[in-house]
From TrEMBL:
PANTHER family: TRANSCRIPTION TERMINATION FACTOR RHO. One of its GO terms (biological process) is DNA-templated transcription termination. It comes from the Bacteria. The lineage of its organism: Bacteria, Pseudomonadati, Pseudomonadota, Betaproteobacteria, Candidatus Accumulibacter. Residues 9-97 form the ATPase F1/V1/A1 complex alpha/beta subunit nucleotide-binding domain. GO terms for molecular function: ATP binding; ATP-dependent activity, acting on RNA; RNA binding. This is ATPase F1/V1/A1 complex alpha/beta subunit nucleotide-binding domain-containing protein. InterPro entries: ATPase_F1/V1/A1_a/bsu_nucl-bd, P-loop_NTPase, Term_rho. It holds the Pfam family ATP-synt_ab.
Amino acid sequence: MTRSVRGEVVASTFDEPATRHVQVAEMVIEKAKRLVEHKRDVVILLDSITRLARAYNTVQPASGKVLTGGVDANALQKPKRFFGAARNIEEGGSLTAKDVDPAQAAIQHGRP
């Protein structure tokens, strides 16, 4: 038995600059919002919220408030909005955003 799901894969590789990672993330979330407005159900699987926050940390101006791990407080605002965009619209579609960081999944399942 074969199963398939219609979908689109959008990626930016580790060797691309932080500006590209940010550009791709913003393009994806905006497209997802438009699809939801047109009564489509959308699921976004993000490889790592941490990597996205670090990309924003690189490209955004510093606020002067540095959090644990060296991330500026401003760098977390856009990733928070990324996941905050998740919604279910009455008479419309839905948007689900999930962080699927493989390293965290391995730790949770007791693998190094």
